[in-house]
Structure formats: structure tokens, C-alpha cells
Amino acid sequence: MMRGLYFILALLLIAIVIVLGLQVGSFESDLSTIAEAFLNYNPDNTTHYAIVHLRLPRLLLALVVGAALAFCGYLMQAMVNNGLADPYLLGTASGASLGAVLVFFGFVNISVAGFYMPPVLAMAGAFIVTLVVVILGYRKRQLIPAQLLLAGIAISSLCTAMVGLLTFLSDSEGKLKSVIFWSMGSFERASWTLLPYPAVALIVALILFAFLQKQLNILMLGSERAQALGVQVSHTRWAILITVSIVTGFAVATSGPIGFVGLIVPHVTRGLLGTTGRSNLLFCAFVGGLFMLLCDLLSRIIYPPTGLPIGIITSFFGVPFFVYLLSRKNYKFSS
Amino acid sequence: MKNKTIVYTLYFLSFILGLQTIVGCQQKPEEQKQGITITDDLGRKLHLPEKPKRVFGFTSAMAEMLFAIVDTSNIIARTPDSDYPAAVYTKPIVSNYPIDLEQVLALKPDLIFTSEGMTPLDVAARLEELGIPVYYQKYRTVEDVLKGIEDIGRIMNREQVANHLADSLRKEVQQLEAKYKNRHNPLQVLTITWTDPIYVYGQNTLLTDKLRILGAENAVQETFDQPYPALTREYILKLSPDVLMGGTKEKLEQTFFNQYPELRKIKAYKTNRIYAPTGNLIERPGPRIVESLKELEGFLYP
């Protein structure tokens, strides 16, 4: 009963925040303007154009990226059976940052065959680094979570050091601004052409794991118990690994590495629905999306017109709630 | 007896001489203290023992200023990005970011010239601890740059050269100002400095005054905290400037408009009024300011 109520509440709040978010921008627009922009769209009206082509894709990208990061965080925490895990554990964020920074510093052309290269190289960086981390975490035909964790930390540090070195050697203030902006996340690049990549990856992943939620819950009891209960631990881990690297890769490539969402939202989900809920993953994605939408809205209200870098807002507003959640006596990571 | 008198007289004279030397040595710091005290554009008081003879600029624009006013032999270094005038290449390079304190000390400058925002104040404080004063200039208007030229002339004992240069530049600026005064519907000009994120010349930059002189306006009318604020696509769409500066149409088509196709709706794109100002001219406040104004004039009124 409560579960259904939480779902309805999350969806309702998402709808409300989207409607509020559609009203925030440089063009003045109230509810009637927004309704007119959708029901009677005039491409020559710049307010209509801004609402449909700038604000809506931005809000939807925030929703999708928030959902993707929270969903991947939940999967990673289940896979390594540790509440400290997040989607960037495999070095995805630092790999993506390094890829984007290579473009900003001129190692790759900014535009190739009409493609704006920072997201493309970010995606490539994310995949390459994840692959290296997985190879390092793989021993005797098995993924060893502790080894995977350490490899992720080590490779991430290496990528971060390389980004730091390039930043230090930068010869232009503009390049530094790009790196800073990229490293703290933003939805300003959102467009209808960019949105389908993370959205499709997330939807496919959500459908796949709708069938694997049970195995996931058992995996959180520990690999030995999961094996004893008939879960194919190795297969499930591989499924998680591939999914997380693809979905996080797209999220980071489109919006930069936004921290904290993938860490806290899975805990919020378990705090509300329990550790073994049937629809935890879906709910986690909804809450992640809602949280990101709220953070984006706040960032634009606090610091118009660009908004504060989204990673700053997620930490400022996420940490107090996270601390409250951890201080609750009845909250446990796993049953 | 006579010999004794001579010896005593010599003793007395040497005593007087010794005393004179000691007193003379003690008087030296007092003379040093007298020196000259100057106040920079940030209101910082600097004490110099005498008129500076060994100077350099901590920015490429300041190097241009110094080379236009000061005797070349008094300029002892240049920063890595200094590339104008050609004579600048004869000077040794000194790193201004990150600052190489030992290198600066080794050059033994009497004074370093810089401008607001280009050299952090803590770096200036550290240099002053080491006995090297740093003089800041601040420019909001074209007239501030001309006053800056006169200022350097005063400090460097080159008033005649500096005043002559400032006056001739001032005359040209006034002519341009008179030519474009009271224009109806002034052109709205947006100038981008970086494309991802989009950074532009804000209201409180020298460019705003250059555009005013030319009868145009900076399209960014809002005053932000930063001189070069970041803007969103929606903000620029709303501004819809008449003129866009920041690169050639071909270059911006590949980067800026390829990345933000929504901005093809702005007036400047539709009317093909996209220009690439020379970086060194638009960015540097210096003696080439009239050259910069004339380049902008060519873009605004082709």
C-alpha cells in the first residue's frame, strides 16, 4: 500500500517540478504561455521555441541522468555488497573527464564530421577506463569485487592526475573554464538530439533488470549465500557491469560527472521501501530523476541565468538528507 | 712639540672624518625613506627609493604600453604571451603563471606593472615582501587606458612621450565618438570569448565603452559579478544580437552553431553579421586601442 503511494507521490512530484522548471528561464513565461507552446506551437515565437527546444530537453535530460545515476548506484552497491559504492567506482567519471579534457586541450579536433567531440571522447574515455578496471578486477575467470574496487580507485586517480596535469599546463583561461564546467556537471548542452542516447540506454537497462531484481536482492546477502540460493553470481555481476558502464557512460558524456546522486538515492530507496523491495530499482530511478530535477531547478533559481554547477547543488542538498537517513536507527544497508 | 701638535691635529681630523662617515652612513636610510611614494589604481601606496629604471609588464598588454612609452633599455623582461611589438622578443621571458619568484628576483626589477585581475593580489604582496613593488592599473573606459599611458610616463620620467601619445590617441577617439554620436537604434553587439560554456564580454568590460564610442551597444545590458559572464542559449536567444563577434562565420558554424543549433535563430546569424576581431586588439588595453576601435568600426559599419 505504502509502496504504491510512494510511487504515485514520486511521479506527481516529477510532474510538478517539470511544470515549475518550464517556467524558469530568460523569457518570461507563465502557465498559459507554456500550455500555448505545447498546444499551439509557433516556431517563429522565440518563447515557444525556448520552452520546447531548450527548457523541456534540459528538464528531461536532468530526469534521465538523475534516474540513470541512481539506478547504476543501486546496481553497484548490490554488486559489491557495499553501501559506499557508486556508479563511478569503475572509473567511468574520471575516464569521461579525461576524454573531454583531451578535446578541450586540442589533442582532438573540437568538431569531427559535424560531431561535437567532447561528449564522444567522454564516452570513449568512460568505456576504455571501465574496460581496464574490469580487466584488473578479473582473476581466475571471476570478478573479484574488492580487486575491482581497488583497480577503480587506482585508475581513477591516474586519470584525475592526467586531467590535473593538462589543466596545470593550460595556456588559456577559457580551457580551464571548460574543464571546471565539465567536471562539475551541467545540463546546458541538452537537446532533442542528445537526449535519446542516455534515455534509450536507461529504458533498456530498466527493462532488463526488472527481470533480475530478485537475483539482485539475493546478491545483497553476499556472494556465497547468493550462490547457495541458486543465483548465478558471475552472470549477474557481468550483467551489472556492462549495464552500469553503458548507462553511466552516456549520462556522464551528456552532462559531466555529477556526484552524490548515485550514492545517496539508493540508500533513500532502501530507507523508504526496505532492502528487498520488488520494485526498488524502478523507484530508485524515479527518486534519482526527481532529485536531479529539483537540483537543476534550484541551481537556476539561485544563480541565473546559467545556474550553479549541478554537482555543487547535489552535494549541498543531498548530504544533510543522507546524514539524517544514516542517523535513523532502523536503517540497514541489507537485510 | 711641533711634531706633537701635527700628530694631535691629524688625530683630531681623522676623528672628525670618522664621525662624519658614521653620521653619513646613518643618514643614508633617511634619504632612502624620502624616495617617492606612488598610488596605483587600486589605491595601494608604493614606496620607491628613486624613479624606477628596471621595469617590466606582467601582462602582454602592459608590455605594449611600456614599449610605447619607456626607453627599451629600461624594460628588462616579458611574459611568455607577449608578442608585440617585435622588440619584445629581445627581452628574456619571465613566467607569470605560475610565477617564478626566483627568476623575478634575479632580474632585480625596480617596479612591475600589471593590471587589475591579471595578477593576484597575494602574488603582488609576496613580491613586495621581497622588495619588488607591483603597480596595478584599472581600465573601465578607453579614457582609463589613455590615463594609464600618462601615468606610466609620469612614473618613468617619460611624460613628454606619454602625453604626446595619449593626446594623439585621444584626438582620434574623440573624432570617432563625434562621428557616431546620437545614432538611432544602436547596433546590439554580442562578443563571445569561449564556446563551451558560452562566455561573453559583459557590461563592465572595456569593450562596452569601445562600442559606445562607435555608437553601438554591448548586447549584454545586465551587469553580472564577473566581467566575462557565462550565458545560456536561452539568454542569447532572447538578446538576439544584431552583430556577433568571436570568430569567422565558417569557424563558428563548425563549433558554436554546430554545438548550439538553436542559436541559428539569432538576428546576427540570419543577417550574416558574424565577425572575427583580432584577439590581441580586442583583448589588450594598450596603445593600439584606436587600431582596435577602427577594426570594430569596420565590422559595425562595413
From TrEMBL, chain A:
Its main location: membrane. The chain crosses the membrane at residues 59-76, 88-110, 116-136, 148-170, 190-212, 280-302, 308-326. Keywords: Cell membrane, Membrane, Transmembrane, Transmembrane helix, Transport. It is found in: Cell membrane. SUPFAM superfamilies: ABC transporter involved in vitamin B12 uptake, BtuC (SSF81345). It is a multi-pass membrane protein. Pfam families: FecCD. It comes from the Bacteria. Belongs to the binding-protein-dependent transport system permease family. FecCD subfamily. This is Iron ABC transporter permease.
From TrEMBL, chain B:
Residues 54-302 form the Fe/B12 periplasmic-binding domain. It comes from the Bacteria. It comes from Pontibacter populi. It holds the Pfam family Peripla_BP_2. Keywords: Receptor, Signal. InterPro entries: ABC_Transporter_SBP, ABC_transptr_periplasmic_BD, Vit_B12_bind_prot. Signal peptide: none annotated. This is Helical backbone metal receptor. PROSITE patterns: FE_B12_PBP (PS50983), PROKAR_LIPOPROTEIN (PS51257).
